[in-house]
Amino acid sequence: xxxxxxxxxxxxxxxxxxxxxxxxxxxxxxxxxxxxxxxxxxxxxxxxxxxxxxxxxxxxxxxxxxxxxxxxxxxxxxxxxxxxxxxxxxxxxxxxxxxxxxxxxxxxxxxxxxxxxxxxxxxxxxxxxxxxxxxxxxxxxxxxxxxxxxxxxxxxxxxxxxxxxxxxxxxxxxx
Length: 175
What we know:
By secondary structure, the protein is an all-alpha fold. It is built from 9 helices and no strands.
């Protein structure tokens, strides 16, 4: 059980309840997370619609996004996020066993050159953002548009935020 009470959408004003239910019903199995975020109306009003809008825009390839999220979540040992994003990455063509060993990316048989670049960039952007090697950034820019690089970086750092939030408040995995 989380360290704070889950808030049911029925306890919220209609506009927030609609965001809560739309996110919980369409984005993925994140009901426990949104039930905790419901304590902060501004978070419901801004964070969750932003995530849904980013998904709908599909600026960044889903495979790259999910690789980045799983890598950062592994770096932070956020089991909630790894467990919830693993099925999304399986849909993108990486086996369950392959996802389990994604941190061994250098010789990973299921990752292509772009996938490995995303892993490298996710690690660098999360662990040493002020020291991302210029050759790595140039390689990322050769593969992704500026908008995609910005979104990839946003999603890497936002993932780290969600990892820490989930772990600090001990949000449990949904069944």
